[in-house]
Structures are given as structure tokens and as C-alpha cells.
Amino acid sequence: MFMAIKFKKKNSRQLGVEINGRLLTAILCKYDAWDFEFESFSIELDEDCVENGLFINPQKVFAILRQLVQTQNWQGIDVITTIVSRQMVIRHIDFPMMQDNELSETIKWEITQHIPYAEEDVIYDWCNLGSMKKDQSNINTILLAAAPSETVNSYIKVFNEAGVVLQAIDIVPAALLRWLLYIGSNQWPDIQVLTIGVINFGEEMTNLAVIKDGTIQFARSLAYGKQHLAVMEAEKALIEELYRSIEYYQNHCKGQIARIIITGGVDEENNLYDIASQIVKVPIEMGDIEVSKLTSKYAVAAGLALKGIV
To answer: Is 24 part of a structural domain of the chain?
Structure first.
């Protein structure tokens, strides 16, 4: 299936940056009216820089980013990032069918029932996934993302002072969607007709995104990452939570997962591939993109770099 790609700007660059635990990955997307190409960057931060996605030493993070900006000639470039933290809350909320303006007002009044923050202390956004529940065609499912204003503002401050222009803070599932549709379509040409599960193993967290008909149908953030898996109980808990999340999706939503693609920090030294194989009996593949020469650990950063371009 041919996929038309529309670019909003010409002859430009945009940077996607993911900070996941101590690992900072970045993708520079260079694009024009016809094509795009990627450059990848990866560095390991000091232990006292970030904890649970929060800048515990903002000045040190700023200094590292500033040096990257200067050495890579990124001054003034547009940047998209994400907050990989338990403070970034992602929820699925069901509402009766209504217009988006009505939904917006309803969500405004009900948001505090679904997130652990007061309305005045949070920044949130939402997306209408439409009718996705089995036998409930009159119900819309909303994907809601929210984070404390203080956390969001700390990201804005550090990035902008480093010499780049932070355009947006996105969520990991949305970045994985773009990565799959616009970078992985040559490798997996059937992604437009199949239901695909993407498991992104990060340093501190694991994200599950189920993609169907070119949209996010289901998303779940789990508070276990690579750094926790040395403890057997954490590995068992991660397997159990992934299994229950996928089981919930397949029991309640309009789709059966046909393939699992693994992204994030997966290598020969860990058993994350084996973990995925215990969850669901469908084909499992690594998310290394041969055409673009992007390994699986850059999936989120690449999807972030494409925001607003495609």
C-alpha cells in the first residue's frame, strides 16, 4: 500500500530527544519536500542527572545539552521531547458519543477523577480514539495524557536555555506510532491492515502501544524497565503486567494483535526478547529498521523527530 507523506515545511531540520533513565537518545531529522534522512546520537548521563524522568540536577542536564547543541550545530533548532516518568499519566476514559467541543468541556470537569493531580497543577491533552470497545458502538474512548505543570516547565526551561526551541512534549505511544507508520512501513508493509503491538523497553519504564488502522488503540505505561530486571520479582511483575494489558485489549477492544515489535534498550546481554515471547503467542520481531539503519533504541526519538512533519 502506498503511503503519501506530506511535509509542512521545506528544507529544514527537527530534533527528537528521549531521556530514559541515564540514556539520552536523539534523532536529527533532515527533510525537504520529497524525503527525509536521519542522524542518530546517544550519550549516557551521570547518575545524578535524572531520576524517574525528573531533572534532579537541572544545571548538569543543561550543561550536557548545551554542549551537544554547540558541538552538533543545533542552535535554534526545533525540538520535540517526551517525559519518561511515572508522573506522566496516560489513561483511557470512556464517554458517550458526543461532539469534540462537548467532550472537551466534559473532560475539563472530570479530569481530576482520573489523574492524581489537582486541575490547577496539571497540563493535559487528549485524543478521541472513537469507538473501539467490542459491542459498545455508542461509546467513545479518550486517550488522556497529563503531567504536573512543574515538571513540564522544568523541561521547557532546560531545553530552551540550552539553545534549542522546545516545540512540544509528546507521549511515547504517539512517537512509536509515527516511527512505525512512516519509518517502518517498508519493512512491515502490512501494518496498515494488521493490529500491531509495540513494546518499548526503557531504562526506567516499559511502554506498550497497540496500533490499528493507523491510530493508537491502546497504550499502557509500566513502572519497570531494564534497570529493574536484575531482580527476579520485578521481571515477573513486568511479564504479568504486560500479559494482563494485552489480554485486556484483546478481550475488550476491536482487534487481535497479529505481531509484536520490540523497541528500546534490547541487546544480546539482556533477556527482554525472551520476556516478550512469554506474553503472547504471535510473531515477535526486533524493531531495527534496515532501510534507515536505525536500531530499535532510537524508535521513540525518531518518532518524536517526525512530529508535525508528517
So the answer is: no
